[in-house]
Input
Amino acid sequence: MAFVKAPCKRRAAILGATGLVGRTILALLEERGFPLDSLRLLASERLADRRLPFRGESLPVEPVSSHAFDGVEIALFATKNDISQKWAGAAREAGARVIDNSSAFRYQPDVPLVVPEINGATLDDLPWLVANPNCSTIAIVMALAPLQRAAGLERVAVATYQSVSGAGAQALEELERGVRLGLDGQPPARRDGGPPFAFNVVPHIDRFEDNGYTREEMKIVWETRKILGLPELPVTATAVRVPVRVGHAAAVNVRLSRGIGPEEARALWREFPGLEVVDDPAQARYPVPLAAAGRDPVLVGRARRDPSQENGLEFFVASDNLRKGAALNAIQIAEALSHAEAGAS
Ligand SMILES: NC(=O)c1ccc[n+]([C@@H]2O[C@H](COP(=O)([O-])OP(=O)(O)OC[C@H]3O[C@@H](n4cnc5c(N)ncnc54)[C@H](OP(=O)(O)O)[C@@H]3O)[C@@H](O)[C@H]2O)c1
Output
């Protein structure tokens, strides 16, 4: 799908504007020149008199309230599930379309879960609510979609390496503090009692489900199926937090209906918008979070045949979890919705 700038000026709001995703949305609206009539920044009442810079101005951050969405056409939500659930109705009543970054609505059958390069056509129906997928899942499905189209997917097994910014601003502060203190001794315990982020690798993101998987792992399973439109696709995942500030990576193993080699895989990825092939191991060129952070494309490489199974392929992806994993994907959805609206009127 080609990306075109939203055709007419919009009145927008960001709920959770002060968080990591909210601030990235703000930066990207500016970077992409998203046409805006007005922009309202909303957060909690935690701190008074906050302002954030935008297009040479200093915009006030307002506490969210029942009238906060009056006149708003596009509401970008970057809050936890309970806050998104609390305010989505108010935004709808005010006539806004909501693009939500939390997982509160992702598994409702009537709510589209969208990666515009893959299933952006669902936005032509002009839904009032669109769910933005999980940050690791977005990068993984971006690399899977062209393989699926060319060779058919039969099974997907994933292990993620997820940065600490994926857990929000407080967690990132904990990592940074832990790294400083950990240089001279043990990194301190985390506020929630979990193992320290610093100098550690933690196979636990979100809560544990009854089946022994974490919810983060099940998000990858459920969301990969929903976005690719393959409800029966066997998917298994292990989601791991690593002491990286920004940028999620994943090792992905697939079984395809037709065997394809690394050359063909790279050719398919090169044709797919939003992907960048980085695959020259002899020159130490492969996807890494530091190279993905601050950039839009999902990096894909380390492609190789999996000799342990027929039609198996193994590869590695890295992407900026705050950009394509959240803010960028949400803004691409807003741009596509705006375009679909203009086409419908
Ligand atoms: N971080 C990622 O890489 C990533 C990727 C994909 C999806 N997501 C999802 O995006 C959402 C935001 O994540 P984040 O990492 O940006 O979190 P964050 O850094 O912790 O930011 C949370 C935001 O929510 C606001 N907030 C908290 N309580 C509120 C309340 N009662 N009313 C209104 N606003 C409130 C905070 O405002 P105050 O400053 O006033 O507290 C802040 O702006 C989460 O659902 C997360 O799962 C995150």
The longest strand covers residues 153-161. Residues 136-320 form a domain with the Dihydrodipicolinate Reductase; domain 2 fold (CATH 3.30.360.10). The radius of gyration is 20 Å. The chain has a mean pLDDT of 96.
